[in-house]
């Protein structure tokens, strides 16, 4: 859909109608079954096993709007094909009621990210020359520049190949979890995240990244922004502004020079 033919007010109404359609059928949350462990950080993340027999790193609503950012960025990353943890909405109310170690965790729905085994944390990039990481790094450079990352931290597999993963996005977007509609509107144009400049991407890797970004549709953006429940503290006006922000910045990245200078079929439509 080409939104250039609409006034700003008309385009916002279209976005809102589309978001409301997805709100009628919200994502079904996974039920948390078993407490595994907890971390004593500000967001109080916990590791839970859920009804699908998989483990998830979970942040409850006590983490505030970090979980809105976490859910949205992880789902954007999945759309892009970036190496992010798979995002889920987790229902933790029943487990909070019976598990003493979760006494400080807010009941209700929570953000969950699929647990990635045998990894270590790093605030710096490593293994950037390993072939298995090259496209992964390229896609993260796009994702981080697209949304505007304010907290660069990564996971790497402990054993070779040392694959990179990105799972903690609570402080992304302008001003992190405290972003406002005005902050989104006044953000600088999107560009590849300069944190990844040391990777020295090849034109072919740039082209692959652009192709991945170009495949993401307006409907994908609406589905992603519709995913956090209202109870997490995001309003409809903020959702509309966020879809506009993501759509505009996607266009900025696609029309900018990522180093490949190759046109993408159908780009700009």
Keyphrases for this structure?
alpha+beta, globular, single chain, three-stranded antiparallel beta sheet, 8 helices, 8 strands, 269 residues
If you had to describe this structure to a student in words, what would you say it looks like?
Helices cover 37% and strands 15% of the residues. The protein has a 5-stranded mixed beta barrel. It has a 3-stranded antiparallel sheet with strand order 6-7-8. The chain has helices at residues 8-23, 66-80, 93-98, 131-147, 181-185, 203-214, 218-226, 236-255; strands at 30-38, 46-50, 55-59, 87-91, 109-114, 119-122, 154-157, 164-165. β2 and β3 (55-59) form a beta hairpin. The chain has 269 residues and is α+β, with helices and mostly antiparallel strands. The chain has a domain at 3-25 and 68-83 and 117-255. α2 (66-80) packs antiparallel against α7 and α4 (131-147) packs across α6 (203-214).
